[in-house]
Design goal:
Blueprint: H1 21-32, H2 37-42, E1 49-50, E2 53-54, E3 56-59, H3 69-76, E4 78-81, H4 85-96, H5 98-115, H6 123-134, E5 135-139, H7 142-150, H8 153-159, E6 168-171, H9 174-179, E7 188-192, H10 205-210, H11 214-217, E8 222-226
Parallel strand pairs: 3-4, 5-7
Antiparallel strand pairs: 1-2, 5-6, 7-8
Helix pairs in contact: 3-5, 4-5, 5-6, 7-8
Length: about 260
């Protein structure tokens, strides 16, 4: 029996899984054969290098006692991985976006080395964790960006709906991918607003990694996006009454600052 029992716990054919689907299918096949999650993921990581060596996924209890998770990865190039969905999705994002995950890890490790582990993470580590767990990257025409930043949901999803054919959204956060195994309308990504621009040049790994500047990230340059509102991501949103739910599609509060590039 696999780490997840007899039934594979998510569908690789969903829109948010599209970037990960091919690798996820190969990993799933290895897990179905009885391999642990770390073993199945490591079979895909041979070509990925970190500063301290080739990337490997190791059992979840591999870190030294008292050593921060991020510091252990930076020191050893080994990602502690439990046999659960959360860590499986973390591994899939590592395999799809190794440069971006490496950059996040380097920034986390540097900040831990500088400030240690305290009661709070601080603004940079908070932002790094938010993006790592719940982040997304959007490549879209300017009218969609303008509407998203204003939380003009009608403009974003109805008025400019046809422009979504020119847009691409990458769910980067592994915790969000885990939540989407049982999709709920309130599932919300924190979309990264790159420094100096509203519309990233693309969703390739190198572009995302290059946008991860510590000074910019410390300002928490994210804007919320209820991902099941994206056309094609939920059949229910074909009926525009889907967007009338103000508990999910919330307007911007008057006192709330707009995210700045």
């Amino acid at each position: 029996m696999s780490a997840f029992g007899d039934a594979w716990p998510f569908d690789t054919a969903t829109p948010w899984m599209a970037p990960y689907a091919a690798c996820a299918s190969r990993v799933a096949a290895k897990i179905a054969q009885g391999k642990r999650v770390c073993e199945a993921l490591s079979g895909e990581s041979a070509s990925i290098a970190l500063a301290s060596g080739r990337l490997r996924f190791v059992p979840g209890d591999s870190a030294q006692p008292g050593e921060a998770y991020e510091s252990f990865i930076h020191r050893t190039a080994c990602v502690p991985t439990r046999d659960n969905l959360h860590d499986l999705f973390n591994g899939l994002v590592w395999l799809h976006c190794p440069a971006s995950k490496r950059r996040l890890n380097e920034l986390q490790a540097e900040e831990i080395a500088r400030a240690g582990i305290g009661a709070t993470r601080g603004p940079l580590r908070d932002a790094l964790t938010l993006f790592d767990e719940n982040g997304a990257v959007l490549d879209a025409p300017k009218p969609l960006w303008d509407a998203l930043r204003a939380r003009n949901w009608r403009g974003l999803f109805i008025t400019h709906r046809s422009l979504w054919r020119e847009a691409r959204l990458l769910v980067f956060g592994h915790a969000l991918l885990e939540k989407l195994t049982a999709p709920r309308k309130a599932a919300t990504a924190h979309v990264l607003i790159a420094a100096g621009e509203m519309n990233p040049a693309g969703l390739d790994d190198a572009t995302i990694a290059a946008s991860l500047h510590p000074e910019h990230l410390a300002t928490k340059p994210f804007t919320p996006l209820p991902v099941l509102g994206v056309p094609g991501w939920c059949v229910q949103n074909e009926n525009f009454s889907f967007y009338d739910d103000s508990e999910v599609f919330r307007p911007r509060r008057d006192a709330e600052p707009s995210p700045t590039p």
